[in-house]
Amino acid sequence: MNTAKPSSPAVSARMSRQARRDTAPEVAVRKLLHAAGHRYRLNVRVPGMSRRTIDIAFTRSKVAVFMDGCFWHGCPQHATQPRANAEWWREKLDRNMARDAETTRHLVASGWTVLRFWEHEVPGDVAERVAAVAKRCGTNRRRDDQGEL
Q: InterPro entries, per this entry (predicted)?
């Protein structure tokens, strides 16, 4: 592993300020799910893995939703490769992608259904796909007064 540092303190500070949770795409999807009556938990720790969380979790039906940023998670369509300190960034981003794959494998082996979406995907489309899977795996929708969904 390369022990190089970010190219400058300014770059390091800027990157550390990037939102890790409650990003605009994530919030948009959550609002749509909530408006449709779905209930979920946020930033749930991945069982058996330290320092890893599920962005949107349907814990009863074991559905884990991740909203991945194109830069940080290596979107095949939008990922960019920084030119300054390129080797350090390539290793860092490769580790992120390897960690994503490891987290997915771990959750699937634990009986979870894992859904991963890119930040550029249309929130309405994402919410529809999440809702369909959550329903298929055991719904988490709020019940009305008569116990009906």
A: DNA_mismatch_endonuc_vsr, DUF559, Restrct_endonuc-II-like
